[in-house]
Amino acid sequence: MTSVKICFGLVLGLSVAACGGGGGATVAPPTPSTPEPPQAPSYNTTEYRENPGLGEIGALAAYDDGLTGAGVTVALMDSSVDVLHPDLDANIHPESKDFGGNDGALFDDTLYDISENPNIITPTIHGTMTAGIIAAERNDQGTHGVAPEAQILALRMDLPELASWGGKDINLAAVPDAIDHAIANDARILMVEWAFWDENSNQYAGADNQIAEEFYVPEEYLASVREAFQKAIDAGMLIVIPAGNEFGSAPTAFISQLGLKDGNQNAVLVVGAVDRDQTIFDRSNKAGYAQDYFVVAPSGVTTTLPIHGFREGRNPWGSTSDGTSFAGPHVAGAAALLMQAFPNLTAKEVGEILLASTTDLGAAGSDEIYGQGLINVERALAPMGVTASRTRDGREVALSGSVLSLSPVFGDAVSAMPAFGSVSMLDGYRRAYRQNMHSQVQYRDARALVEHRLNTFISSSSSSVALDGIGHMNFSFMAPTRRNEALEDALPYVARTGVGTARNVAFSFSKAISAGLDMRVSTATGGAGLFTSFGMDDPQARLSDNGVRSDAYASLFDGALGMALNSDSKNKWNYSFAVSRFDVEPNHSTLFDAPAENTEAYAVTAGAAVRAEGYALGMDAGVLRESGSFLGAIGQGALNFGNNATTVYAALYGRYQFAHGWQMVARYSYGVSSVDVPVGGFVEGISAIHTDAFAVELSTRNIVSDGDRLGFSFSQPLRARSGELLAYLPTGQTADTRELTFERVIGALAPSKRQLDTEITYEMQKHHSGLSLQANILLQQNPGHRAGQAAALLLRANLPF
Predict the structure, then answer these.
(1) Burial class (CB in 10 A: 0-12, 13-18, 19+), 608
(2) Tell me, what's the pLDDT at 507?
(3) Is 350 helix (H, G, I), strand (E, B) or coil?
(4) Crossing angle, helix 347-356 and helix 328-341, to 10 degrees?
């Protein structure tokens, strides 16, 4: 007769709303269900998409971070601005001022006949258009600016009379006063929308686009204009200058050369224009001499247009040309977003970041056409350079390498500490960023452990050999299996053990040394199965392995090697002594780039037990010494909670035989742990940690056939009962020195949830028909001492055919 082994395993994960919630001293009564929290707003709106330039510079990342430019003032040196425009009125600074001699009017509402004088159009609408690109409001109409809540300090510079060419000229005499006004009103950015040419400008302009001498800044104003802009730089303003539209090899405005002056690096940004395909606009002047502080930005975008004066009753929004005048405001708006996000940055730092975070265009690296490339707001907001945090004693720690593989003993304790979700780190510019350290913590998945047990049962094999005169040897392993792909595809979980190799090998050897004294050497893949307490032997296999017959503290580890001595006297008293070594590896963690180093654990255990007819009672006591871990938890960097931990523990256990074949087995374990907290981390102290575990089993035999077994078990795996950690977490930054500030955190290390396992087992071995059967049903409440439920089912049979 042949037999066929059929195995089926199933794990179900269930989430129950009533299992959620935090800890606390009291249990709150049930409350009605609350509505789902509102979803985060989406800023990828029609209003946003109306200006394609916003997407091209990566501004959406800033909006998703809640940035709008609020609190930042941009001084706009341009022609008149329609301050009553519905997309601008809320963002016009109250100290905006006319410096052109227009009787204080900020907007030119003259009803020009543009058919007779078309050159008046641009100077009349230009200021309103550039203001809209910077800071048009987000109000579900038209489009919005790069920084939709920044303040525009309008500096109207055009003279009231028409120039000989039909447009407007700038009041050059008022430039120093206008810049002084911007400084006095705390403007952080100066957007320059007038071309300041001199006799040297034409050497950079295209041959067919030479600048007429009448547009040069007169000699009498050259020095005062240069000094005024230098004063703005010295006052801490970022100067943004359009490159010009003369088909030139370099910027033509002489003030652009201020970026070459020693001490002005990064304080001046010159901006060229690109098309939708991010090719430089043919008229845009190129980087040339300014390539180290030259960037490009979109033009040909939608923005605000005046709706008063000669444009009364017309569309409030329209498209710009492809000029650099409309590229520059994108950079000014980007700078406003960056300054809002990091208000302690200097203007030069903002300029440097914008230059260093561009999207490279043209030739690789800096080049004479695109300079540093297209501005990229998303990159500018991201950490740059070396990112690190600090401990309270000033030690630098890299958060990327700070990880914690947490054993189930602590359950949800760390995740219940909100301060770990908002730890500050600094980048190379000492900008503070929030890091959610909860994402750096990984918890051993109790569901995965059950799946591992299913695999073990389904594909395990074992043998036992008595060696005459030598001793007794046991050997077990997970055998290679044939894959049933159809079954695997059909079921939520089927044990998958691979093909071709034996794994999880366990071995034990025992030898009688003298009458009543024997020695045992064991190695096991799970520490809990290393040694079994005296009088507690039970061959029935369970999915829940919570230490009812063995050391609950050994269950923290993945592998073990040990030696035990047992003395069994004739009066049924037993004394035992065991020494064990455990593997301490975060095998269940994907956070560690490499295996943890210098980690090991040893335990010394002594016990005494008495066994008589119908009962057995015993007590074990031991010391567990860990190096590189703490109750199975392994940390690195700032999350290294503890090294060199010592746990003193004891266990009481017993077995009682009832009438009619029923038997009860119980075990309770309790321990106290202390740990040396290493320097260089956020945790500065951990109190004594009290832990316990318990298990109760009730079983009987001969239910259906001779020798079969039915069992019921209820258990709690090892869990922290009490204990606290003291940590100082960097959660803020000083505005002046940019040093990290620290929050004192005292967190409970006892989880708010408790894992409780309820299991039913049935086993029939060697029935007269040749049938063998094993069935397990397990329900886990709060697996891993974390909220939730899991269930597992195992059915294993050997059929006689």
Answers:
(1) middle
(2) 59
(3) helix
(4) 110
DSSP 732: E
In contact, 368 and 291? CB cutoff 8 Å: yes
Q: Are 292 and 371 in contact (CB under 8 A)?
A: yes
Backbone angles phi, psi at 32, to 5 degrees: -60, 150
Residue 435 near residue 441, CB atoms below 8 Å? no
Q: What are phi and psi of 461, to 5 degrees?
A: -140, 155
Tens of pLDDT, residue by residue over 405-432, are 888 999 999 999 999 999 999 999 999 9
- Which 3-state string (H, E, C) describes 151-197? EEEEEECECCCCCCCCCCCECHHHHHHHHHHHHHCCCCEEEECCCCE
Q: What does the block give as tokens for 624?
A: 């567990």
Q: Which pLDDT tens digit goes with each residue over 138-175? A: 999 999 999 999 999 999 999 999 888 888 999 999 99
Tell which residue, 259, 340, 339, 338, has the closest CA to residue 295.
Answer: 259
Kindly report the number of other CB atoms within 10 A of residue 35's CB atom. 5
Taking 70 as the pLDDT cut, the residues of the chain under it are 1-40, 444-550, 568-571, 585-598, 766-770, 789-801
- Compute the distance between CA of residue 217 and CA of residue 213 in angstroms, rounded to an integer: 9
Give the 3-state secondary structure of residue 77. Answer: strand
468 CB contacts (<8 Å, ≥6 apart)? none
SS3 content of the chain, % helix, strand, coil (to 5): 20, 35, 45
Q: Any bridge partners for residue 396, and if so which?
A: 390
Angle at 80 between CA 76 and CA 85, to 5 degrees: 90
CA distance 158 to 294: 27
Nearest to 728 by CA among 679, 675, 690: 679
DSSP class of residue 216 equals B
Amino acid letter for position 535: G
The count of other CB atoms within 10 Å of the CB of residue 292 is 15
Residue with tokens 């809540």: 149
Is 237 in contact with 243 (CB distance < 8 Å)?
no
